[in-house]
Structure formats: structure tokens, C-alpha cells
Specification:
The structure is a homodimer.
Chain A (H helix, E strand, L loop, with lengths): L2 H15 L6 H7 L11 H22 L5 H12 L1 H10 L2 H4 L4 H5 L6 H19 L1 H11 L1 H10 L5 H11 L6 E8 L6 E8 L4 E7 L2 H23 L1
Antiparallel strand pairs in A: 1-2, 2-3
Helix pairs in contact in A: 2-8, 3-4, 3-8, 5-8, 8-9, 11-12
């Protein structure tokens, strides 16, 4: 990578995530998909995923002093799921910065959600290594400010099943049916897998939890998130 | 809580996790199980879980520069699983510090693994709020040093399926059979649930992954962890 290109990449990062990365190699590694061969961003993605989860947990803990643990978990899952991260990555033009192998280039890998989301997490990992935890936190809060603010409004908040029911009722649609797909584990620590189909919207959510109710709430939350995505795309 | 008791609790934390907590209320909250009513440790557990995962990710990233993302994920899962955290909590005498409701007290809740592991995570959350990320990291590395060092030896490391196979062969036992229990999701982002039974040892592992191979590795790793637990208990 020429010095010139390295500087332009660092400029892009500073413009979009508000952080000036000192280590150009780290930044290149974060942007390198495994299809390009050599050092790639998979290890940085692992690290960045941990940093991101921690920063979001901290943010939610402080922003929602009344929320219970289950609610905090749901809000976090919504912020860090692949689709949300891919949307942020697309907004900041991460796809154009990606270093891909020829196969992925031809097949449009720079637009694929999973590649974008992974590279976004890898960037967080690189910033963490380059500048420490507080630098990573500042970058995350900078780039995710809109998502976090939107969550504030959602989180005043009836539980997901209630909100989904109200959404469907307001549109004259049939109420959702929750189906237990699987029960795992022994009786004192069971895990429930529940799904929820909304045929008129062509949507489906799946949730996992230590109680049937928790799994249903997660499934409903997935459907709500999908509805929100569809709405955002349409506007 | 009397000042005297608060001081003794802070002393215990400093002795075991190497951190002097300034906020006594936070420390009490971290030690309070929901059975005791009022403020409890569930929110702090959510926060501490995020901090712990991040610190362990950072540690593994640095300690294993050659390990791939899948290996790092497996090592982390092993360090932070409930049984490991409960064992640490038991070692530092966390059970005696717990504030439980009368029902849990009578039924021996201070010895229950899930209650101990949750309270341990809540303590990490409290230290993070009280002293920041670096304080939490230092406390985690202090109290988990033995686990981390032990992992170093494990992690030179053949993959879990190979190690499990070698372990069983060395004891003249039948090789494990991996069974796909479930395939979820659409074709381009499937999730595999695989189980692995070892009847002569009465052990079973379950793994989830985006490929059959990844799920099998996780299932094998679970069995290996259970073998390690059994061995540790016997010595």
C-alpha cells in the first residue's frame, strides 16, 4: 500500500469514525477480507466484536437505568446484529475501502452484509489496539449515535410481544402465533427455541431463551427489527 | 449495611480481586441476588458479562498471535462459561459474601453455580463502573491468571475433534459420532446444531456453528471441557 493510499484510508476513517489511526498496517488488516489472502481481518473482527459488545452494554446500562437485564440484552442484540452493523458500514462507505480477492470483487462482495459487518467490527478492533478502550468507545458512539438515539425512543417501551401485537392489530392483520421449535437441556436449565411467523408480511423471527416467554420476546423483537428495516429502506 | 460490614466486604474484594472499591453501594448491589428483593445484581451482571468478554478477547488476541478466529472463539467460550466462572467464584469465597433471600439461603443458593457465576460477573461490572476499564481488566487478569495460564498449554493445540479422538483412542474407547440435530436458516447463512455422545464416559457435547465442521468442533470442545472438569474434581 502506498503512503498516499494509506493516508487516504486514514483520512476516511477519521472523517467517518472520528478517529485518527496511527498504525497504517493495522488499518489495512482490518479492511482486508480473507478472500484477498495473507493477513486478513478475522482476528481483529473477533476482538472488535468483544469491544463493541462491551461498549454497547456500558452505554445501555447508563442510558436506561430502569431497564431490566432482559431488556438490556434485547436492546444490545438489536444494536449489534449483523444487519444493523452492515447498514452503518454501508452508510460510511466501508465497501469502497475493502480489500477483497478477485472472486469476491467480481461477485460484489463489497456489498454483502456479512462482509461489511465483519469489517466494521474489525475496524473497532483496530481502533481499540491503536488507541485503547476509550478511543474505541468514542468511535463507536460517534458512528452509532443515530442508532442509539432511535433506541431511546423505542425503549420507553412495552415489551416486544405487546408492540408486535399492537402493530399488527393497527393494520388489521392476524395476531402472531408462537411455536416452540426446540427445547434443549435438562429440566433445571432448559433452553427454548421459539419461532414466530407473520405470513402477510413474509417475515419470521426466531428466539432463544431460558424460558418460553423470553424466547417468544426475542422472536417478536426480531420481527419488529425486520419491520423497522423494511420501513427504513422504503423511506 | 453497617460501615463495618461494608469495610469487611471491600477488604474481601481487595484481597481476592486486587481492587479496592470506593462505592460501597455498588459492591453491595453486585452481591445481592434477586431473591433478596430490592436492588439486585442483574443489571450489573449484564454489564460485567460484556466487560469480561471484551477483556478475555483482548487477552486471547495478544496471547495467541497465531490462533485463528475460530480458535480464539473456542478459547473464550471455555474461559467464560458458567462452570469456569462458578469455580473461580467458589475459590475466592464469593458464596459467603452473597446477599440472598431466605428461600435461596435455606436451599443452599450460595453454592449454586449459576448464582455464583452471575455474581462474579456483577462484581466485574461494579469494578468497571467504580474504576474504569483498566481496573476491571486488571482484576480479571488477577483472579483468572491460573485459568489463562492453563489455556496457554492447551492452546498449542490441535483442534478439539483431534484432541478428543486422541484422548479416547489412548483409553481404548470408541471414537465419537457427531450427529446433526438441526439445520436452521436459509442456505447462504445456515446454522448447524451438532451433538456428540460419549456413552462410556456418560458425556455429551452440543455445538452450534455456521458450518457443520465448526459445530462439531464446538461439541468436541464441550466434551473436552467436561472431561477436564471431572479430572479436576477427582484430584
Amino acid at each position: 500500500m502506498t503512503t498516499d493510499l494509506a493516508r487516504r484510508t486514514a483520512d476516511w476513517l477519521e472523517r467517518t469514525l472520528g478517529y485518527r489511526c496511527r498504525d497504517a498496517e493495522l488499518l489495512v488488516a482490518a479492511l482486508t477480507h480473507r478472500s484477498a489472502g495473507g493477513d486478513n481481518n478475522e482476528r481483529l473482527e473477533f476482538l472488535g466484536d468483544g469491544v463493541l459488545n462491551c461498549v454497547i452494554a456500558d452505554y445501555l446500562y447508563r442510558a436506561h437505568p430502569q431497564a431490566r437485564e432482559g431488556e438490556l440484552s434485547r436492546l444490545r442484540a438489536r444494536l449489534v446484529r449483523r444487519e444493523s452493523l452492515a447498514a452503518i458500514a454501508a452508510r460510511i462507505g466501508l465497501g469502497e475501502q475493502l480489500i477483497l480477492g478477485p472472486g469476491e470483487l467480481r461477485s460484489g462482495g463489497f456489498r454483502r452484509g456479512s462482509i461489511l459487518a465483519d469489517a466494521f467490527e474489525a475496524l473497532i478492533g483496530a481502533i481499540y489496539l491503536d488507541g485503547g478502550f476509550d478511543a474505541a468507545r468514542a468511535a463507536i458512539e460517534h458512528v452509532m449515535a443515530a442508532q442509539m438515539a432511535q433506541l431511546g425512543a423505542v425503549a420507553e417501551l412495552k415489551d416486544p410481544k405487546t408492540r408486535l401485537q399492537e402493530y399488527l392489530q393497527a393494520r388489521g392483520l392476524k395476531l402472531p402465533v408462537y411455536v416452540i421449535d426446540q427445547v434443549k437441556g435438562e429440566s433445571h436449565q432448559q433452553m427454548f427455541v421459539v419461532s414466530c411467523d407473520i405470513p402477510p408480511l413474509g417475515l419470521r423471527g426466531t428466539g432463544t431463551g431460558q424460558s418460553r416467554r423470553a424466547a417468544e420476546q426475542e422472536a417478536a423483537d426480531q420481527v419488529l427489527a425486520a419491520i423497522a428495516d423494511t420501513t427504513a429502506r422504503a423511506t
